[in-house]
Fold:
Amino acid sequence: MSQAAETLWSRTRDSEDVRIRIMPFVIGCLALGAPRVTLVLVAVFSNYIGRAYHSALWPFVGFLFMPLTTLAYAWAINSHGSVDGGYLAVVVVAVLIDLGLIGGSAKNRYRGRDGQ
Structure:
């Protein structure tokens, strides 16, 4: 293979590697902004949720009440196999965000705007 062809091949391969590595970051950012949309997309286009939860009940309940926690738990189980250490910290932070303890609730944001 010539030097030019080899350089072109390595650039193509590198750009594919970058796209593969950037995708979890994009999904994570989407999860912080719109966790329910992310949960539906991940459930429809992959088996990621199915590998973490062995029934459809808990992801559905998670979708309704605590979508970010549902995604964080699925990430911990798929990445590590259990929820301990740093993975436990991520799940706990997700619980706090879902409960509105971190970031505040929409009720408090609107209350501040109206001056009530």
User: Anything to note?
Assistant: The CA atoms of residues 30 and 38 lie 6 Å apart. The chain has a mean pLDDT of 80. The radius of gyration is 19 Å. Residues 3-114 form one domain.
